[in-house]
User: Fold this.
Amino acid sequence: MGASRNLILAAALTGAGLMLAPPVAADELEARIDWGQRYTVSAPLAGIVREISIRPGEQVTEGQTLFTLDTRRLRADARAGEAERERLRLELAEADREVERAEELYDRTLIALRELELSRIQRAMAAARLARVDAELQKTRVDLEDSVVRAPAAGRVLSVAVSTGEAVSPALAPAVLAVLGSTDPMRAEATVDADTAGRLQPGQPARVRLDTGEAFDGSVSSVGWEVEDIGFGHGYRVEVHFSAPEARLRAGQSARVSLPAAQ
Assistant:
């Protein structure tokens, strides 16, 4: 009986020119594509760019070699450090023997306590010199590793800012070598009103549709807390991360984002 009354009421409203509201659909918003994250690749040490292994537009994998700096000075420093370390090891071994002889003579009351203490001081100083050279040699080895600049993440090379033979020095200015944009995930940005922002939560499912008709499933990654204008009018920024490994997307492409429907 209740179902019949509802049908009669709906028919009456329709006849009167009033339509029942359909279920609320997911919000679809104008959006813009951007890289999942931008990485500024800088030189970790001063040197001369010996080799550039990338070009703008190329796709790179995490850990791939991007640049190689000249290492001749560092290798010379490493060889000198290894030679000095070997000399100091011999010096420390001799200091150990001197302490052993001094302790034996002291036990036989042939030398004073001060002479024994001086031998121990000499041994401690030799050990300290060896430790300092070990630390310097370790630093040189780290610099040698850093002379090969690798991609911090998989992505696309957006720009290369140096040339082969150019000197770079992070001590003088941020030595930017290149800029990368991560492509998996990609990011779509849109703005929403306060009510929509209040009901969205990171992790909720979303969908990104390109002008070409391609669509990709994703999820809400962040919801802003301050009003801003990113090109779609003032609102709260919503970012959606999505994976499109086979698509050749570019930052700035227009898209539309479907967000979860209001309950």
